[in-house]
């Protein structure tokens, strides 16, 4: 106690601030650890036998697709490149006893005639399937760290279509079936630019689209997080 009385005011202020941060963060950490330490859930039983993953051919999307297949879920894979879809489908089926369905869909063409046709194919593909999980993973950051006038307007429009409009359209295509069956999970891949950074210079457009993705859960009647189910 004597030491605290002798400590400078700035030290006490910083210590108090740190204590408040730890107090706010600790419950989230405990919940996360609880989810990760408990027994893995049967995703097929809880959500459904099929999952839709956008952008599954590389990076996070590929890892998520492989993990869902390992858990026994059949996959509807959505990407713009048919060859890449064929490759990842072959990889998944060679490792796991699941079915895959490929839908070629350039998400940057959403709300265009070509995009409407691809969206119709996706709707037809999922209509009769027990789709219980949707992973909105596809996203682009191009044209990158530039001022608005330094990039072609169409490049910004493509970013908005992929990161914002496509997330909305694909969710709207899958969500009605989840609501009808009374179960499901929608996982939207966000970005630290919309979570831990109040301002993201030269990436304002990108961070704004990712902020929309983060807040999209408030627009859906059904939003269930999958993080706890994948922690095993």
Radius of gyration: 21 Å
CATH superfamily of the largest domain: NAD(P)-binding Rossmann-like Domain
For the biggest sheet, the summary is: 5 strands, parallel
SSE ordering? HHHEHEHEHEHEHH
CATH architecture tag of the largest domain: 3-Layer(aba) Sandwich
Strand % is 5-15%
Mean pLDDT value: 84
What's the count of strands? 5
Give me the side-by-side strand order of the main sheet: 3-2-1-4-5
- Share of helix among residues? 40-55%
CATH class of the largest domain: Alpha Beta
The total number of structural domains is 2
Number of helices: 9
Q: What is the CATH topology descriptor of the largest domain?
A: Rossmann fold
Coarse shape: globular
The separation of the N and C termini measures 44 Å
- Given as residue ranges, the uncertain stretches (5+ residues, pLDDT < 50) are 221-232
What is the chains' assembly state?
Answer: single chain
Pfam family, one: adh_short
GO molecular function: ketoreductase activity
GO cellular component, one term: endoplasmic reticulum
Protein name: Estradiol 17-beta-dehydrogenase 12
């Amino acid at each position: 106690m004597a030491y605290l009385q002798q400590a400078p005011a700035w030290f006490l202020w910083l210590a108090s601030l740190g204590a408040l941060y730890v107090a706010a963060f600790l419950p989230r950490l405990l919940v996360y650890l609880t989810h990760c330490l408990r027994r893995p859930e049967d995703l097929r039983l809880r959500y459904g036998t099929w999952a839709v993953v956008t952008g599954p051919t590389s990076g996070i999307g590929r890892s998520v697709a492989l993990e869902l297949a390992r858990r026994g879920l059949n996959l509807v894979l959505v990407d713009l490149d048919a060859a890449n879809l064929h490759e990842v489908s072959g990889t998944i089926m060679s490792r796991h006893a699941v079915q895959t369905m490929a839908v070629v869909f350039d998400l940057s063409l959403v709300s265009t005639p070509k995009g409407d046709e691809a969206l119709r194919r996706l709707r037809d593909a999922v209509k009769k399937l027990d789709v219980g999980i949707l992973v909105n993973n596809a996203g682009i950051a191009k044209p990158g760290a530039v001022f608005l006038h330094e990039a072609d307007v169409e490049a910004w429009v493509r970013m908005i279509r992929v990161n914002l409009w496509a997330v909305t359209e694909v969710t709207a295509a899958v969500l009605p079936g989840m609501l009808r069956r009374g179960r499901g999970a929608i996982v939207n891949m966000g970005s630290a630019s919309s979570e831990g950074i109040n301002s993201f210079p030269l990436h304002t457009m990108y961070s704004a689209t990712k902020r929309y993705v983060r807040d999209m859960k408030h627009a859906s009647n059904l939003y269930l997080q999958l993080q706890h189910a994948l922690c095993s």
